[in-house]
Amino acid sequence: MTEIGGAVQDLAKKYPDHTFALPLHLNPKVREAVLPEVKDLRNVIITDPLPYDQFTALLSMAHIVLTDSGGVQEEAPSLGKPVLVMRENTERPEAVVAGTVKLVGTDRERIVAEASNLLDHEAAYAAMANAVNPYGDGKAAARAVAAIAALTGVGERVAEFEPRDTEQQ
Fold first, then answer.
1. Is 132 a residue whose pLDDT tops 90?
2. pLDDT for 27-67, tens place per residue?
3. What is the per-residue pLDDT across 86-126, written as a single tens digit (0 to 9) for each?
4. How far is CA 17 from CA 41, 65, 130, in A?
5. Which terminus of the chain is more solvent-facing, meaning fewer CB atoms within 10 Å of its CB: N or C?
6. Which CATH architecture fits 2-129?
7. How far is CA 20 from CA 25, 90, 94, in A?
């Protein structure tokens, strides 16, 4: 956790015009490791964990996302946000294959290098932000309404979501 806090510190110093939002787990050990690294930085906003609606609003405003959360690995790509996963492995390997997330581990230098690559290189950012999300395209509700309309005879179904075959990308 200290490495992660240090990486956020390095990024905040390298990019002083960027704001870094850090919803921080309430676990005292996590806070003891991370807070000393970031608490005095003016462009780092530290919050307690956020309610879902506030968290998704924050995600929608983010440029990139650094996380170790499995759920965030699914949700952020739906918003077109590149995700750097600060873990050595993931239960969501399909997102890695699709290119919407990248495993970067917990090494401070690697986290900074990978985040900097996304912040400094438009092509690297676009490749992740525009990769096809294997969890859907955000149109499930419209498909559900169309399916109900088709079942009741008042409309037609629309095309189902089909992620691209990642082997052909």
1. no
2. 999 999 999 999 999 999 999 999 999 999 999 999 999 99
3. 999 999 999 999 999 999 999 999 999 999 999 999 999 99
4. 12, 17, 25
5. C
6. 3-Layer(aba) Sandwich (3.40)
7. 16, 24, 27
pLDDT at 164 over 70: no
What whole-number distance in Å separates Cα of residue 18 and Cα of residue 76? 19
In degrees rounded to 5, what are phi and psi of residue 26?
-80, -10
**Quick one: CA dihedral 127, 132, 135, 141, positive or negative?**
positive
- 3-class secondary structure for the chain? CHHHHHHHHHHHHHCCCCCEEEECCCCHHHHHHHHHHHCCCCCEEEECCCCHHHHHHHHHHCCCEEECCHHHHHHHHHCCCCEEECCCCCCCHHHHHHCCEEECCCCHHHHHHHHHHHHHCHHHHHHHHCCCCCCCCCCHHHHHHHHHHHHCCCCCCCCCCCCCCHHHC
Q: What is the pLDDT of residue 167?
A: 46
Q: Has residue 165 got a pLDDT over 70?
A: no
CA angle 50, 73, 12 (to 5 degrees): 65
* pTM of the model as a whole: 0.84
